[in-house]
Specification:
255 residues, mainly alpha, MetI-like fold, 2 domains, elongated, MetI-like, MetI-like_sf
Length: 255
Amino acid sequence: MRWLDAGVILPLLAGVVFLALWEKQFYHSIFDLKKYQLPLPSAIAQSMRENFSLLLSYTGYTLTEAVLGMLVGSAIGFLIALTATAWPRWGGGSLTMVAALNAVPIVALAPIMNLWFGDGIGSRVAIVTATTMAAMAINAYKGMAAIDPLALDLMHSYAAGKPAVFRYLRIQNSLPYVFTALKINATASMIGAIVGEFFFSSRGLGYLLSNSIKVAKMPLGWSCIVLAAVAGVLFYLVVERLEKIFIKWHPSARS
């Protein structure tokens, strides 16, 4: 009951107070904002009701881009980590290259990916792939490298070969790091997909948000922001649930 009070009731109460102050235009008066600049929650809710089918369809489209891109980017990042661990001399430089790619702004990647993959869903998937590789590669490599020397000696005492060491020790030890990267990528993928839609897209929340701002339909634009946030949180919770299923042996999962 104490956890319920602290973890659920207090955040809900804070959220209700925040929305009530927003509806009463408290923030408008503090920051000197007009209602067309910051629509009221009631106006946003009305816009969501009026455009529910469109918003739901575009949310699904953006979420598809995010999920596909994250899966591809995370898979490539994991393979890079495997290569860097198995062959440090040849694979170590790939981590540096991935980190350098991650430093490139999304707004710079978007035109390049559109030129390479066209203006369809492939370009946004490629953007998300590029933005999610680094977190997985670096975290997975850290997990594979940070193994207990005693465990490694035990594997060697049983005459375990390199594939067995990777399968039963290094990859197993990397799983908590892998799920940490997946949780990072769950939110980063939504950002990448939406920003990519700002530039080249005919569907999705980013496309609808950009058009809504251009024609001053701010309640509709804020509806896109709300749904993007909800989709990102749900995506994160799904990954968190999978983490508890696949690494029940880890102390963090037991706690």
